Amino acid sequence: METIIKVASLQEMDRFAKTISEHVFPGAIVGLTGELGSGKTTFTKFLAAHLNINDTVTSPTFTILKVYPGKLPLYHMDVYRLEGIGYDYELDDFIYGSGVSVIEWASYIREMLPNEMLEIDISGNFDNERIIRVKGSGVYEKCIQALSH
Ligand SMILES: Nc1ncnc2c1ncn2[C@@H]1O[C@H](COP(=O)(O)OP(=O)(O)O)[C@@H](O)[C@H]1O
Ligand SMILES: [Mg+2]
User: Fold this and answer.
1) What pLDDT is stored for residue 100 in this prediction?
2) What is the dihedral of CA 136, 79, 44, 100, to 10 degrees?
3) pLDDT at res. 94
4) Which domain holds residue 11?
5) Confidence of residue 131 (pLDDT cuts 50, 70, 90)
6) Which protein residue's CA is at the shortest distance from atom 2 of ligand 1?
7) Whether the CB of 102 sits within 6 Å of ligand 1
C-alpha cells in the first residue's frame, strides 16, 4: 500500500509526523530515504515531540544511533556511513527491539530490514515544500489509510 502526500511547510510536516506518531507501536520500524537536506532529521524531531520525548533530537550521523527514552523509546539511526558496508549487527538489538526505530538512509541497509516496515521517502527541495511517498504493508496499512484522508 502506498500514498503520496504533499506538504507545503514545516507545520504541515509536523502534522504529518503527528499522524505517524499515532500509528507507531513497540517494535515499529520507520525507514527514511531522501537526499541530504530533504527533511529526514526534521521529520524525526517532530515525531519525537509527538511521542512526548523532551530531549533535543539531533542528527546521529556520526554516532549511527541515538536512543531517546520515552513512553515508547525512540531509536534514531542514521546509517549513511554504512553505505557499501551494508550493516552493523549491533543495530539488531534496536531494530528488533521494543522501541520505535527511525532509520535515516534506510535504503543502505534495506536487505537487513524486515519486509514489513513503514517506508517514507521525502523529495523536492523547493522552499518548504516536500513530496512524501509512504509505503507499507501489513500492520502499517492502517497508517497509510489514515494519511490518505
Ligand atoms: N516541509 C519541510 N519539511 C522538512 N524540512 C523542511 C521543510 N521545509 C524546510 N525544511 C528545512 O529543510 C532542512 C532539512 O534538513 P534535515 O532535516 O537535516 O534533512 P536530512 O536529515 O534529510 O538531511 C531543515 O533546515 C528544515 O528546516
Ligand atoms: Mg539527517
Assistant:
1) 98
2) 60
3) 96
4) 2-131
5) very high
6) 10
7) no
